Amino acid sequence: MDYNTFSKPKMWTNVVGGIVCYILFAYEFYASLIHDSSITSSLLFLLLAVNCTFRVFSYAKLSKIRKSTDNESQFVKAERRQGIIITIFSNATSVLVFLVLLIRSIMTKGPIAFDVILGLCTICFGVILVQTIQNLNRFDRL
Q1: Which of 81, 84, 134, 140 is the most buried (most CB within 10 A)?
Q2: Phi, then psi, of 39 in degrees rounded to 5
Q3: CA distance 111 to 117
């Protein structure tokens, strides 16, 4: 989805996605408690649910800005800034997901090649995250 522009269908997609992820989190967490197993998969669903929730709140914030301002260029700037913030949050979520998967793989003594791939993905998303934060800083200076 392109988050440089916001729309109600995107918001409702994130609402539904968040609800599904929260339900899956609750189910996986309950199953892990009952079967005395790892809660890793439930944490992954929780991270995805929080990401969807953040996007819904971002949409609500932009909707409030749209209603409070008459200046279209000011709204476009706020929309672009919020798009960068969502990208930062999504990249941070990706780093956390890959870290959780990497830690789980190391703890279960998974294949070393898989650990290396997960480590590289974590590093790549970390670099992208830092670059996006720098883009936000440049955007704020303009």
Answers
A1: 84
A2: -95, 15
A3: 10
CA 89 and chain centroid, separation: 5
CA-based nearest residue to 52, from 28, 87, 26, 16: 16
Residue whose C-alpha is closest to residue 96's, from 74, 118, 116:
118
CB 102 within 8 A of CB 116: no
- Contact, 58 vs 30, CB < 8 A? no
Nearest Cα neighbor of 92 from 126, 49, 115 is 126
- pLDDT tens digits, one per residue of 7-37: 788 888 999 999 999 999 999 999 988 888 7
Distances (CA, A) of 30 to 21, 47, 103, 122: 14, 17, 21, 28
**Measured between alpha carbons, how far is residue 129 from residues 74, 110, 121, 126, 137 in Å?**
26, 27, 12, 5, 12
Residues in the chain: 142
